[in-house]
Amino acid sequence: MRAAIPIFTLALTMASPALAQSAGEQLFLSRCAGCHGATAQGDGPMAALITVEVPDLTGLTARKGGVFPLADVVRTIDGRMALRGHGGGPMPVFGEILGGGSAALDLPDGAILETRGDVLAIAAYLQEIQQ
Fold it and tell me: What pLDDT digit, counting tens, does each position of 59-79 carry?
């Protein structure tokens, strides 16, 4: 019976390599990588067709003085922070189409930012991959 557990675990791992990816990474790859690239460096297959520069999302922390702008990232993904290319341009406002239930983020000023769970998962994944 002891040998069955490692074999089952190995079979499960081999059958579903997506299990190694976080939910945020899976969502990023399916919803964002077309423009931002699989490595989030702004080099997705659609980037050449977009009239605004697609940013390298791995440098958000560096551009904000070493602090990841989590609330701004959430607001950008869900459409509350308007950016060229988000909302009024070729990129959809993802807050309207992502699910994952509701989620809340405690902000440093004591406020609570409510969003969708999938939006927060993508933002958390972006925080993980900062250079």
Answer: 999 999 999 999 999 998 888
Please, what's the largest Cα pairwise distance for the chain? 60
Q: Are residues 104 and 112 in contact, defined by beta-carbon separation less than 8 angstroms?
A: yes
Domain 21-128: assigned CATH number? 1.10.760.10
**One-letter amino acid for residue 84 of the chain:** R
Q: What are the residues whose beta carbons fall under 8 Å from the beta carbon of 52, sequence distance 6 or more? A: 84, 85, 89
Reference 61, options 52, 73, 77, 50; nearest CA is 73
Q: 3-class DSSP state for residue 106?
A: strand
Count Cα atoms within 13 angstroms, Cβ side, for 82: 3
Tens of pLDDT, residue by residue over 106-128, are: 998 999 999 999 999 999 999 99
Q: Which amino acid is at 28?
A: F
The tokens describing 39, both together, are 């490595």
Domain chopping of the chain, boundaries: 21-128
The C-alpha atoms of residue 64 and residue 51 are separated, in whole angstroms, by 24
